[in-house]
Design goal:
620 residues; single chain
C-alpha cells in the first residue's frame, strides 16, 4: 500500500495502516500508524493501530503501552478498551485487568460482537466452557459469520483446555515458574514409578526364583531411600509450592499422576512387608489349581493373591493411567457439534487444523465403539449380536451430515491420508463384524466366522498403526498431531480484521463549532424510570480526538454510572441551519468535574426552510 496523497492527514495514514494489516504486513502497518501518531498525538485510532501492529509482531509490552495511550485519550471508546484487553491477556498475571477491560467494552458497545468474543476467550482460558459458550452465542447473534466466535465455540463444545491447563491466568505468578513446577512433578512421578516397578520385579525374581527372600526385602527397602532422595531433589526444583494445590486442582492428569505415585509407593512398601513365603516350584501350581475350588484355598493363598494385586499395581499403573486418559479424552466434549461450528466458516488455517483434530477424535470414538461391539457377542453369549456392527457406518453418515462435512470431507481426507486410512479400516472392521454376526443366521461355515473375527482384529490394529504413523509424522515435522493438544484458539483468524482496528468517530469543524459555542446543549440518558433529558450547562471543550467534556448535574452523573450510553443534542448556534446528535459513552471525571463523552455515532440534520414549513390552519 503506498503512502496517502495527503501526507499531513493522520486519518489517511490510519487507513493505510489498516489496509496493510489486512494484507498481513505488520511492519508496514506500524510505520503508517507511527506517522499518524506523529501528526496527531491525541488521536486514539493511531495508538490502537500501533498496538495492533506491535501485537502482530510479537511485541506485547510495546502493544500494551500503545493500547494504554488509546484508553487514556478516549476512556469511553469500546475499541480502545477491547484493544487493551486483547493484549493484556497475553501477559502473565494480567488476566484480571484484561477481564475488566473486556467488561468495559461489552458495557460500552453491547451491540458489537468482538467484546463478547473477548469475554468468551478469557473464560475459555480459565476452563469455564459454559460461560465461554454463552459469550460466543451472544457474539453470533450480532454477527452470524464471525470466524473467531464460530471456531472458539467449537472448542468450548470440545471442552478444550490450554496446553498449560495447570496454570490459572488469574494467578500473579509467571506461568513459566508453574510450568517448571509441573515439569518437576511429572518427572518425579514418572521416575519414581519406573524405579519402583523395576525394583519390585527384581525383588520378585530374587525371592521366588532364587529363594533369596531376606536379601530381596533388604534391597527393596534400600530402594525406598533412593526414591526419597529423588523426591527431595525434585522438590528443591519447585519454587512455587503455595500454587501446587491449585495446580493439582486444575490439572486432572497431573493430580492423577501424583496420586498414583503416592499409591504406588504405599503398594511397594506393603509388597515388601507381605512378601509371601513360597517359591514358583511348590506354590504357584497349587494356587492355580485351587482357583477353581474355593474350599481348598488356604490363608497363604489369600496372602499370595493380595501380594499379586500389589505387584500388578506397582508394575502396570502407568499403562492403566495412559489407557484411562486416552479413553477419557476421547469421550470428552461434543465433537459433532464442534465440527458444525468449524465448518460454518470459510476454510482457513486454524479452522482446518481444528477440524482435522476433531475428526481424529471421532475416529478414536468409533474405534472404541468397534471394540465394544466386538466384545458384545461374548458378553451376551449370542454370536448374532455382532450384527450391531452396522451402526458404525450409520454413525459416520450422521457425523457427515450434522458436522457440515458434505462438501469438505473429500478435501480433508486428501490432505490427511492417515485419517482416510483409519476411517476406511473402521468401515472394514464394521463389515467384518456384520459378516461374523451373519454366519449363524445364513448357515455359513464356521471358518468364515473365524476369518471375519480375525479381520476385525487386523482392521483395528491397522487403525492404531495409522494413528501412530500420523503422530510420528507430526512429531518429525513439528506440526499439529492427531490429539487434543493440537487444538488451538482462533485469535484474529480469517481475513476479517478485529473490531479494534476500526476508525474512531470524527467530528466535522461545523459540529465542533456547534458544541463549542452553543448554550442550548441537551443530554439524553436512561434513568431507573426510563429515558430522561437534561439541559447541560455548557460544553467546556471538544478535544482533538472528538471527546466532549460536559458540565452536568448530579443526576446525569449517577445515570452515567448505571448506563454510560448517552446522547447529546445541540443546534447550530450561528445560523440555526442544522442540528447535531452525538451518541456516545459518558464517563465521570471527578478531577475536572466534567462528564467525558466519547462519540460512537454522529447524526447531522438540517432544519426545514420556509418553503417546507406547514401552513398555519385558517380560523373560521
Amino acid at each position: 500500500m503506498p503512502s496517502p496523497r495527503d501526507r499531513s492527514d493522520p486519518r489517511a495514514w490510519c487507513v493505510v495502516a489498516v489496509a496493510r494489516l489486512a494484507r498481513d504486513l505488520p511492519e508496514g502497518a506500524l510505520e503508517a500508524a507511527g506517522e499518524a501518531v506523529a501528526r496527531d498525538p491525541d488521536g486514539e485510532w493511531g495508538h490502537r493501530l500501533v498496538s495492533l501492529a506491535h501485537e502482530r509482531l510479537g511485541r506485547d509490552s510495546e502493544a500494551v503501552v500503545a493500547a494504554q495511550d488509546a484508553v487514556r485519550l478516549a476512556p469511553g471508546s469500546w475499541a480502545a478498551r477491547l484493544r487493551l484487553g486483547s493484549v493484556l491477556r497475553r501477559l502473565p498475571g494480567r488476566w484480571r485487568d484484561a477481564w475488566s477491560q473486556a467488561q468495559h467494552a461489552v458495557r460500552f458497545a453491547p451491540e458489537q460482537p468482538d467484546p463478547h468474543v473477548l469475554i468468551g476467550d478469557l473464560a475459555l482460558l480459565r476452563g469455564d466452557h459454559r460461560q465461554a459458550a454463552a459469550a460466543y452465542h451472544a457474539a453470533l447473534r450480532r454477527e452470524e459469520e464471525h470466524p473467531g466466535a464460530r471456531v472458539n465455540l467449537g472448542l468450548a463444545h470440545l471442552r478444550w483446555g490450554r496446553p498449560r491447563d495447570h496454570h490459572d491466568p488469574v494467578w500473579s505468578v509467571d506461568p513459566r515458574e508453574t510450568g517448571l513446577a509441573r515439569r518437576a512433578l511429572e518427572l518425579w512421578a514418572r521416575q519414581v514409578r519406573l524405579l519402583l516397578a523395576l525394583c519390585l520385579a527384581a525383588v520378585a525374581v530374587l525371592a521366588f526364583w532364587y529363594d533369596l527372600r531376606d536379601q530381596a526385602r533388604i534391597g527393596g527397602a534400600a530402594v525406598l531411600l533412593l526414591a526419597a532422595a529423588l523426591t527431595v531433589r525434585r522438590a528443591r526444583q519447585i519454587t512455587v509450592w503455595r500454587y501446587v494445590p491449585g495446580m493439582l486442582a486444575r490439572d486432572l492428569w497431573l493430580c492423577v499422576a501424583v496420586s498414583v505415585t503416592v499409591l504406588a509407593v504405599a503398594a511397594y512398601a506393603a509388597a515388601l512387608l507381605t512378601l509371601p513365603a513360597w517359591t514358583l516350584a511348590d506354590e504357584v501350581v497349587p494356587l492355580v489349581a485351587a482357583a477353581g475350588a474355593p474350599e481348598m484355598v488356604r490363608w497363604d493363598d489369600v496372602v499370595g493373591g493380595f501380594w499379586a494385586g500389589l505387584f500388578g499395581l506397582v508394575l502396570f499403573n502407568g499403562v492403566a493411567v495412559t489407557s484411562l486418559r486416552a479413553f477419557a479424552e476421547t469421550w470428552q466434549g461434543r465433537p459433532v457439534r464442534a465440527l458444525a461450528e468449524f465448518t460454518a466458516v470459510p476454510p482457513e488455517r486454524v479452522g482446518r487444523r481444528d477440524t482435522d483434530v476433531t475428526l481424529w477424535i471421532i475416529a478414536a470414538r468409533l474405534w472404541f465403539l468397534v471394540v465394544l461391539l466386538a466384545l458384545l457377542p461374548a458378553v451376551a453369549a449370542e454370536p448374532r449380536a455382532a450384527l450391531a456392527g452396522a451402526c458404525v457406518p450409520i454413525a459416520m453418515l450422521y457425523v457427515r451430515r450434522r458436522g457440515g462435512l458434505r462438501s469438505r470431507l473429500r478435501e480433508i481426507l486428501r490432505e490427511d491420508r492417515g485419517l482416510a486410512v483409519a476411517l476406511a479400516f473402521l468401515l472394514a472392521a464394521s463389515a467384518a463384524l456384520v459378516l461374523a454376526g451373519a454366519v449363524p443366521v445364513l448357515g455359513l461355515r464356521p471358518s468364515a466366522g473365524a476369518w471375519a473375527w480375525w479381520s476385525v482384529a487386523a482392521a483395528l490394529v491397522v487403525v492404531v498403526l495409522a494413528f501412530a504413523a500420523r503422530a510420528a509424522r507430526a512429531w518429525w515435522r513439528g506440526s499439529a498431531g492427531p490429539w487434543r493438544a493440537s487444538l488451538i484458539l482462533c485469535e484474529g483468524c480469517g481475513p476479517r480484521l478485529p473490531g479494534d482496528a476500526g476508525p474512531s468517530v470524527a467530528l466535522s469543524p461545523e459540529v465542533r463549532r456547534a458544541f463549542t459555542y452553543s448554550r442550548g446543549v441537551v443530554l439524553s440518558y436512561t434513568d431507573a424510570g426510563g429515558p430522561r433529558t437534561l439541559a447541560v450547562g455548557a460544553v467546556t471543550s471538544v478535544t482533538r480526538s472528538g471527546e466532549l467534556r460536559l458540565i452536568a448535574a448530579e443526576d446525569a452523573w449517577a445515570a452515567a454510572e448505571r448506563d454510560p450510553r448517552v446522547a447529546v443534542f445541540v443546534a447550530d448556534p450561528i445560523g440555526r441551519r442544522f442540528w447535531t446528535e452525538v451518541r456516545g459513552i459518558a464517563l465521570a471525571d471527578p478531577a475536572e468535574n466534567v462528564l467525558r463523552v466519547t462519540p460512537k455515532h454522529v447524526m447531522v440534520g438540517e432544519y426545514p426552510g420556509r418553503h417546507e414549513a406547514r401552513p398555519a390552519p385558517r380560523r373560521p
